[in-house]
Amino acid sequence: MNTKLLFTIATGCVLGATQVSAQATDCATTASIAYEHAKVKNYEAAEEPLWKVRKECPTYSLATYQFGEKLLKDKMKKASDAQKSAIAKDIIALEKERFQYFPAKTKIGDLHSDIGQLMFDHKIGTKDAQFAEFHKAYTEDKKNFTGAKKLYTYFSLFVDLHDEGKKELQEVFDLYDDITEKIEEEESKRAQIISEFTEKEESGTALSSKEKRKLKNAGINLAAFSKVKAGINQKLGVRADCSNLIPLYTSQFDAKKEDIKWIKSASRRMYAKECTDDPLFFKLVESQHKLEPSAKTAYYLGILAKKDNKTSVALKYFNQSAEMEEKASDKAKVYFRIGEVLKKQGSKGKARTYYRKALKYKPSLGTAYLRIASMIASSANSCGTDVFSKRAVYWLAENYARRAGKVDPSLKSTASKTAANYKAKAPSKTDIFNNPGVTSVAIGCWIGETVKVPKL
Known about the structure:
- By secondary structure, the chain is mainly α.
- Helices cover 76% and strands 2% of the residues.
- The protein has 20 helices and 2 strands.
- The protein has helices at residues 3-39, 43-56, 63-78, 81-101, 108-121, 127-140, 148-163, 169-202, 209-236, 242-256, 260-272, 279-291, 295-307, 311-324, 328-345, 348-361, 366-378, 387-407, 412-425, 429-433, and strands spanning 440-443, 449-452.
């Protein structure tokens, strides 16, 4: 190879490297300008350099897409209704580009549920296309499909497609069960945070600013999931009433009586909708117990025994069910029912034990706190040694009632009124003043707890 050719190749390599280096420098400079403006929410100044980086250096940094989304959402807030659809399409395009260039840092559940919600909110595409985005997110990455509003929209679209004859009623029931379970899992996570921080506060330990934010966010999210769960039930509506369930399952029974999955679903739904007086329910339970004795069969047999006033037999089945049950929310349901039976019998201490077991497996079960509060309040006269200590029992009842509203937003009004009622029966400020030095009261009998005296 002659010297001139070698020189030409070498020169080309140097120039190429120089151009690459210059482009990299230009990307970094432009990105720096864009990001600095975006960090202080000066999106008008950030827009031109940000979109330049997006076009010319799409793989430069994930921050391009993160700031880009914030910029477009800011535009959306300020836009007229006529402009919002176009901006929504821009956000969708941006999110798809993010996945194209940063797939490892983009969650399928987030991506497609976000796209589906944008399409639904701004009437982009057909109902089938909107549903397809949610369905992809839910079936491929349910863990990261967590938005309360998005879960509702997904189910709502599914029901609408059923009403149009595109989905079977049984499919609607199956998705309802699955989404309800998903929501309860998300609720339990938030309720656990609330329960832990509430107990910390009640013990007299101040929360850090970070803990306060976590507590506040948990409350907001829990309220959102509570509303969505109610909305999903309302959307399902009469489609799941006994008048629809009984003929549907009756027509399917002979063909599916050996299908344990179908038997479980049918018996669970008939119980949930209180269709238990129909002979079909007994047939379903018998078939399930024959095919696969389980926590559910023991639970249903307990229900049937309770209906026949065979309380001891019912409790035996319920305890078997709780021991066998693996799903936390269902285990909580069984323990709560045992608590209800024992409470009715007057066994308050034992009932509380089972209500607490229920709360262990489902921290958002606020009704259990209300039941404990009620039993404590009803024992005021028998669990105190003098007038002050007897009335102090109501402080403890108040504390339990308030917890109910914190872990279950749907009970907030009831819990607040109940707590106020107990507070009114507790020692007054004058009573506290006349008992100086008393900072806490040990409550005896079955309660066995200590309650702090409120500060004047």
